[in-house]
UniProtKB/TrEMBL annotation:
Coiled coil: none annotated. Residues 1-38 form the signal peptide. It comes from Neoarthrinium moseri. SMART domains: THN (SM00205). This is Thaumatin-like protein. Gene3D superfamilies: Thaumatin. Keywords: Signal. It comes from the Eukaryota. It holds the Pfam family Thaumatin.
């Protein structure tokens, strides 16, 4: 991820050169439009239509009604973007619904933070663009590119790590749904940090602050717990099997965005595991690479009972247990909390990948359905022995079913086929 803000190369001068350039640009736009059309936003996925919050008059202070419509920019919600990586990034923001932030694409130097706001009904995604060549309103980036524009109008080109939000989800529009998504691939470590509001200040930080770190050099030493983006009272549950030396090989060889050359002149190449991979090694998802119905869960495979995890999804779930790894990964990847408070997207966060949903799935299910953190939940959130008793991501992903997964599976399965 090197900094590069030099003006782009000059255009070809001849008419034939211009014609070739226009054709190439048209093909690029066509390919990116297909990626944009295939994007699965959380609020459009069927499971996001289900409302976990019980319809109760006590939950609505206005005339005891279960629903209300929020006006535009009523109580603006903080959306903060922080770059903890060693190089400049160019974050992009795509808005699916509601009022988006004042900027949808900007430069963010290493160590800098950008403070923005969105409307309380906003739904969209945030990602990081890398190695961009910027000139005025254009920005051509190695990963996460937005049709060559600095301000993004659509989602970024794959592969890209995503932070996805629906701030007014469910039937009552009183819940926030969010996730870290690797459905479009992986390019940067990413964390989501919750900034509580008055009505959500009692939610333990180790219930909500998820992280996905699958790049060598960014992992702290293996440990089941830590205090990054939380505090010593509420230890964060971590994935504890990966190391900085071993995590570089998690991406299936053929899915690397930039496959390194193998020794042996291509005649008798060494096995994949003998080829050193670069630290910055973006990984395409199986869907992004093949665009097949089986990998993208479309067509005849648009069914959770038919569409299964790919090798990519299995690997992604091991290194980032809380991340969304394929289209029907809602059960072990979706966070649902009462609406309110602000959000911070952190690129290259400290610590390790979190393992929150496998550890506190039952408690998060109760929070989603009841909207209240009980004293029993808080005590369990402070219990290191309990966290250490829950298996980490070393267990096969298909064998880890949390309490939240059970609730989503039992209640939402019928909705997924709608």
């Amino acid at each position: 991820m090197s900094r590069n803000s030099e003006p782009p190369h000059s255009r070809m001068g001849s008419s034939s050169g211009r014609g070739f350039h226009h054709l190439a640009l048209a093909l690029l736009l066509s390919s990116q439009i297909q990626c944009a059309l295939s994007v699965i936003f959380p609020s459009t996925h069927s499971s996001y239509k289900f409302d976990y919050l019980r319809r109760s008059p006590r939950l609505d202070p206005i005339n005891g009604e279960a629903k209300r419509t929020l006006s535009k920019r009523e109580n603006p919600i903080p959306l903060i973007v922080t770059n903890n990586c060693g190089d400049t990034l160019w974050p992009g923001v795509a808005t699916q619904d509601g009022e988006g932030p004042e900027s949808s694409g900007f430069e963010l130097a290493s160590g800098e933070t950008r403070n923005m706001t969105v409307g309380p009904t906003w739904a969209g995604r945030v990602w990081g663009r890398t190695n961009c060549t910027v000139s005025n309103e254009t920005a051509t980036c190695v990963t996460g590119d937005c049709f060559g524009l600095l301000e993004c109008e659509y989602s970024g080109a794959v592969p890209v790590t995503l932070a996805e939000f629906n701030l007014a989800g469910g039937d009552t529009r009183r819940q926030t749904f969010y996730d870290i998504s690797l459905v479009d691939g992986y390019n940067l470590p990413l964390g989501i940090v919750y900034h509580p509001a008055a009505n959500t200040s009692n939610i333990p930080p180790n219930f909500v602050n998820a992280a996905c770190i699958a790049t060598p050099g960014y992992l702290m030493a293996p440990n089941r717990t830590g205090i990054a983006y939380t505090n010593s009272s509420f230890p964060m549950p971590y994935e504890d099997s990966q190391t900085n030396s071993g995590i570089s090989n998690w991406c299936p060889w053929d899915l690397q965005a930039f496959i390194p050359d193998k020794p042996g002149d291509g005649i008798y190449p060494y096995p994949d595991d003998n080829v050193e991979r670069p630290v910055f090694d973006p990984c395409k998802s199986a869907c992004a690479a093949s665009n097949s119905a089986a990998d993208c869960c479309t067509g005849d495979y648009n069914d959770p009972n038919v569409c299964k995890r790919s090798e990519y999804s299995e690997s992604a779930k091991v290194v980032c247990p809380d991340a969304y790894s394929f289209a029907y990964d809602d059960q072990t990847s979706t966070f649902i909390i009462p609406s309110g408070g602000g959000w911070e997207v952190v690129f290259c966060p400290a610590g390790r990948s979190t393992n929150i949903l496998a550890t506190y799935g039952t408690q998060l299910s109760a929070l989603a359905s009841g909207g209240v953190v009980t004293e029993e939940m808080r005590k369990l959130a402070m219990n290191v022995s309990y966290i250490e008793s829950v298996p980490g991501s070393s267990a096969p992903p298909g064998h880890r079913v949390s309490g939240l997964a059970l609730v989503v599976t039992i209640v939402v399965t019928g909705l997924l086929s709608l």
